[in-house]
Each structure stands twice: as C-alpha cells, then as structure tokens.
Design a protein that fits this description.
Radius of gyration: 22 Å
Shape: globular
Distance between the termini: 73 Å
Strand content: 35-45%
Largest sheet: 10 strands, mixed
Order of helices and strands: HHEEHEHHEEEEEEEEEEEEEEEEEHHHH
Length: about 450
C-alpha cells in the first residue's frame, strides 16, 4: 500500500490533523476555524513565482514543500532536545529566553519585573487560558494576505511566545530570546509582542540552526506599539547553510510611539524577511535598520514597507549589505503615504557593496504617494570597493586584503553606531567581521574589543 503525497503540502499536515490537534490542545473555536479556513486557502494557492513582483528576483519554484515534514504536526521522531544552546549576544540580558523548537521554552525573568507585570509566556498557553488577549489581534498584521506562505503559517503555526510590557514600565536592559531549530523539517514559530502606553523595551530575537540541518523556518512576529511606547527590536538571522528562513515582522505603531527595528541577515541558504512599519496614529516614528553579509551561494531577500496611514508621522530606513563570491541580495522597499496623510516625512536608503565579480545585488526602492504636503525621498547604490579608497590605504602600508576589510567594516559603521547597548553592537560587529576573508576576522574582532575599551575609558 502506498500513501499519496500531496504536492506542495508538508508531510504530516492535513486538515484533519490540524483540527484534531487544535481541539486536543483546547484551542478556542474561533481560532480553530481560522486555521481551517487558512488551510483551505493555502491548498488553492500556487507557490510564488518570479512572475510576481514580490518574488521577481527570488525564485523558489524548485522548493518542494512535500519534501519537508511539518515537525509539530507529524508523528516523526524529533530526536533529543539540544543539550547546549548558543551564547546570548548581550552579556547579561535582564530577561533570558531559550526557545527549543519542538521541545518548549524556558524564560528567566527577575522578580522585580514579574511584580511590575512583565510577561513572557507560551503563546499556546495564552491562547487556551486567556483567548480574549489574542482574539482581535492574532494574525491581524499578516503582511501579504493571499500569499501561500502567509496562509500556511496562519493554518499551522506550531510554537510561539507572548511578550507583554505593561503600561509605563521601562525595562532598562536587553530582553533576549534564542530560537533554536535542530529537528529536520518545517517549523512555524509565531511571536506576539505588546508594548503598552509609555513602556520602554529593548528586545533581541536570534534564530539559529546547526550548519548542516535541513531545516525550514516559516515564522512571523507581530508587534503592537501603543501610544508613547518606545521599542528597540532586533531580529538576528544566523541559520545554518542548509536551511531556509522566511519570516515577517510587523509593527503597528500608535500615537507618538517610537520604534527602531534592526534586521540582520547572515545565515541560511535562502533567507527572506518581510518587514512592515504600520503608522496608524499621528506622531509615530520608525527607524528601520538592516545589515546583511552574504557569501558562497547565499540568497538574502529583504522586503520593507513604511506605511504612513495618517499624517504627521516619520520614518527613516537604512539597509546596508556586502556580498562575496556568488551571493545574491534583494532589497525591495516601499514608502506608502495614504491620502490625507499630510506632513509625512519619510526616507529610504539601500547601500550594497559587491566584493566579487560574481556577486549580485538587486535594489528596488519605491514610492507610492497619495498626499501632497509630504517630504519623501529614496536612494540606492550598488558597486564595488572604490579603487581610490584602496589606493589611499595601501599607500600607508596596509596590504590589499586588510585594506578591503577596513573599507567593508567602515561601510557598516553608520548602522552599527545606532545599535544599543554597546555589548550588542560589539557582538554584531564581530559576527559581521567573521564573514571577512583571510586573517581579517581575527584582526577586526580584536579591534572591536579595543574600540569598546576606549569608549568605556572616555566614559
């Protein structure tokens, strides 16, 4: 007897299986129906193709979802829980969370923050015990309605976190989350972050997998920034080279909220991040930053939307990337100003540095302006290291490889200097330096430490 494998459907994922497990977990009826309706839509949609504008330069027609097991929805063995987790990017995060995909998570929250109401909970737990907290908002910020991957995630998200920062609470240090994916197959994590009015937080999410693990991650992060809240949010993608990583990150910004988002792309065979800042009330400010460094045959894709839905809002985007070997990057950014959203101030810049003749960078900045009293501009550059810059450094006794490395790290500096705290900036600087060729990584890691010592001494 043979079992038919449905095309473009992950193994173990069926409508009956979704309903059975959702009911067994005690999910509310409204959410079960959302899952099933999304699954039906997923079955009807084709995989995205380069004929679609959003996927023009990222061809995934060779991706066969049926080759992946939906880990949480199947009976396939998951192996052992990872005994050791990667190190945190910050030295002493005030909140430490280890999310072992398929094995649950652990959260360490100081009593002082617990007493103020700060929460880091399992999303399934919130869904079953406090469904009223999620009924209105869960999945509401989905970036591309009608997209096959969006529907698949809505139908089958399998693990997640609910992070809650209460009104007027300021979390002074970093809250850091490590997401670790080791079991081969498809994982669908979901994070919901709620920053209440007047709150302040700095949240870092790092995504990892072993270098040779055939893992596919289809994730989503929804962030609800209430009036006067302030958030720094970092999404660090350091997946192994055998992995695929596709995730959306969406911020809904209320009146006078301020969000600095940082998207870092270093790993994965194919990595794609869709990021949206949705400014829904006057005074909202967004500062989207991006850093990426590709080598080998990596393909790194970033889609951004600065969505000004009302007037008197501002956004200022800067994404910078470098590429070695045959790596490919795609940046497609949109500034959208809705009608009547007067006095919008928006800027978008993407800078790309090609470090080989075979690397490719595609950059597509876009403006869609529906109001007339606005200031909206964009810029994009793609090019190699400039010969006169190399000549200047070599004329001072610096060998060619070190000179190029100096230029590359200086290229990233304008974004790095906006990252806080200092130890997070140092960690990201080291990770970027580790992608350099030859002896340069060791040199720049030492230089980064010296730079931090000098900064501390001046303070």
């Amino acid at each position: 007897m043979t079992t038919e494998v449905l095309k473009d459907v992950p193994q173990g994922l069926t409508r009956e299986r979704i309903e059975q497990q959702a009911r067994a977990h005690g999910e509310p009826e409204w959410h079960i129906q959302r899952r099933l309706e999304a699954y039906d839509r997923f079955l009807q949609l084709p995989l995205p193709s380069p004929k679609q504008e959003d996927w023009r330069y990222t061809d995934i027609t060779t991706l066969h979802l049926e080759d992946y097991t939906a880990v949480a929805w199947s009976d396939a063995p998951r192996g052992d829980a990872p005994a050791q987790m990667p190190a945190f990017l910050t030295e002493n995060p005030v909140v430490r969370v280890y999310h072992r995909a398929g094995f649950g998570f652990e959260a360490y929250i100081p009593n002082a923050l617990r007493e103020q109401g700060v929460q880091v909970r399992d999303l399934h737990e919130v869904l079953t015990q406090n469904p009223e907290l999620l009924e209105r908002d869960l999945g509401r910020l989905a970036p591309i309605p009608g997209d096959k991957f969006t529907e698949l995630h809505t139908a089958a998200w399998d693990s997640g976190l609910y992070i809650y920062i209460p009104r007027s609470v300021q979390v002074d240090s970093v809250m850091e989350i490590i997401h670790w994916f080791e079991t081969p197959g498809l994982h669908l994590p979901h994070t919901v972050i709620v920053c209440e009015s007047g709150s302040v937080a700095n949240i870092v999410q790092s995504f990892f997998s072993p270098e040779d693990a055939p893992v596919s991650v289809l994730g989503a992060v929804e962030v609800f920034n209430k009036p006067n809240s302030e958030l720094r949010h970092t999404l660090m993608q350091r997946m192994g080279r055998a992995s695929l990583f596709i995730s959306s990150v969406d911020y809904e910004q209320g009146r006078d909220s301020r969000v600095l988002s940082l998207s870092v792309g270093l790993g994965a065979r194919l990595g794609r991040t869709v990021l949206q800042h949705l400014m829904t009330e006057p005074g909202a400010e967004a500062r989207p930053l991006g850093l990426f460094f590709g080598d080998g045959k990596q393909h790194l894709d970033f889609r951004t939307l600065q969505d000004h839905r009302v007037g008197n809002t501002s956004s200022d985007l800067l994404y910078k990337g470098a590429l070695y070997d045959e790596a490919v990057s795609v940046f497609s950014g949109m500034i959208r100003v809705h009608p009547k959203a007067q006095h919008t101030d928006a800027y978008q810049a993407n800078r790309n540095l090609l470090l080989s003749d075979t690397a490719q960078a595609y950059t597509i900045p876009n403006l869609e302006i529906g109001a007339n009293e606005v200031r909206c501009t964009h810029g994009a550059t793609v090019g190699p290291v400039q010969p006169d810059e190399l000549f200047y450094l070599r004329s001072r006794g610096i060998d060619p490889a070190a000179a190029e490395a100096l230029i590359v790290m200086g290229f990233f500096e304008v974004v790095l200097r906006e990252i806080k705290p200092a130890d997070l900036r140092l960690s990201i600087q080291r990770l970027l330096a580790s992608k350099l060729k030859g002896e340069a990584p060791r040199y720049f890691m030492d230089l980064a430490e010296l730079d931090e010592e000098l900064i501390a001494a001046r303070a």
